[in-house]
Amino acid sequence: MKTIEHYYDANLNWTVDLAKQFGGKIDGNFIIVPEDIQTGTRYFLDCGDGIIAYYIDVEYKKNLHLIQKNLNDDFVAFYYNLTEGEATMSVHNFLYNVSKWQYNLSVVDGSLKSDYHVTAGSKTYALCIFVKKNTLKLFVLRNNIRLNNVNEIIDPEKNTMIRFDRMSGNSFHLLNDLRKKEVGGPIFNLHLIGTVHMLIANYLKKISTKRIIIQRVNQQDLATIISLQMYLIEHIEGNFPSIKILSEKANMSESKFKTLFTKITSQTPSTFFMENKLLLAKDMLEAKQLTISQISDQLHFTHNSYFASKFKEHFGLSPKAYIQQL
Q1: CATH architecture designation of domain 2-208
Q2: Which residue would you say has higher pLDDT here, 267 or 191?
Q3: Residue 150 near residue 161, CB atoms below 8 Å
Q4: What is the mean predicted confidence (pLDDT) over 71-89?
Q5: In angstroms, what CA-CA distances link 238 with 233, 277, 294?
Q6: Rounded to the nearest 10 degrees, what angle do helices 304-315 and 269-287 cross at?
Q7: Percentage of residues in the chain with pLDDT exceeding 90?
Q8: Of 121, 123, 159, 197, which has the fewest beta carbons less than 10 angstroms from its beta carbon?
């Protein structure tokens, strides 16, 4: 496994250092990486006004461990990650999946250290956007986005910007459209800048409709919440553990646990649990090895009709209609 220790920022100072860590070089706006490590494209662009875009479309030839330790915290990173294969991020040795079908959008404060592990054979298509925190405030004002507490959101004394989420369908299509363009040159740069601005606007509009929790988050709290997410996933076939049990495992008060969990995942613990249970049910229906009734029983739904109603509420089709569509 090759280990790379690096940093990001909302300027381009990090590009030369990262290329050097890979044993590669800079060629225009491209980071050229030796082909025994990866094949494909790494491209960066200064989008102006404190916004940097980093476009990645590669296949890994080696297992990589990338350790990110930023030099300053005056920025926030948006990671739109459509990895196909095995890729994880870790904080304090707690792992969570980042891939096309799992946590494909991460918003991470520059103050937080993170590790990224990816295995040989994995393919990553990702767009990383590094934005100065004050630029986010200007972006909100210029685009008339109703984010009344933006000053508190970007204040490092009051808040840590952190969220692991799934990107919207609109964002997914924007990234797929960008991937069809030939990388490099003024035409691509225009498409890239436009995509970056639309993705930022989409995200800010999305969070403006929700209650935003203003709170600082340290590395250990983040690791604890991630570990409890993994605990819920590991016990997804059973019934939802009580908040009391989960908060005791986190060694937090119930109110602190619920607040931190919702801040980081944008969902309450019970909603997170139910959504992932339904995603598992969907996979089981696609496998066609169990009946609807058997899946309902195995996942401990109280009765088949409740399973059917929750499935339809989430996916827009009943389990029976979904199977027929397959």
Answers
A1: Sandwich (2.60)
A2: 191
A3: no
A4: 79
A5: 10, 9, 14
A6: 100
A7: 59
A8: 121
Q: Which two tokens stand for residue 104?
A: 């494909």
Radius of gyration of the chain (CA): 21
DSSP sequence for 223-250: HHHHHHHHHHHHTTTSPPPPHHHHHHHH
Phi, psi (deg, nearest 5) at residue 82: -110, 50
Residues of the chain with CATH 2.60.120.10: 2-208
**pLDDT, tens digit, 9 for 90 and up, residues 292-310:** 999 999 999 999 999 999 9
Q: What class is the 217-326 domain?
A: mainly alpha
Q: What share of the chain is helix, strand, coil (3-state, %, to 5)?
A: 45, 25, 35
Domain with CATH 1.10.10.60 in the chain: 217-326
Q: What is the pLDDT of residues 126-163, one digit of tens each?
A: 999 999 999 999 999 998 898 888 999 999 999 999 88
Give the DSSP H/E element, type plus range, for residue 142: helix 133-142
Helix ranges restricted to H, 252-303: 254-265, 269-287, 292-298
| Integer Cα distance of 47 and 211 in angstroms | 30
Closest to 77 (Cα-Cα) out of 199, 174, 195: 199
Q: Looking up tokens 């509009």, which residue turns up?
A: 205
- Sheet bearing 87-91, strands edge to edge: 2-6, 64-68, 114-118, 87-91, 94-97
Output the six-digit token pair for 27: 């060629």
The residue with tokens 């250290």 is 113
- CA–CA separation, 76 and 51 (whole Å): 10
Look-up: residue for tokens 């381009």? Answer: 12
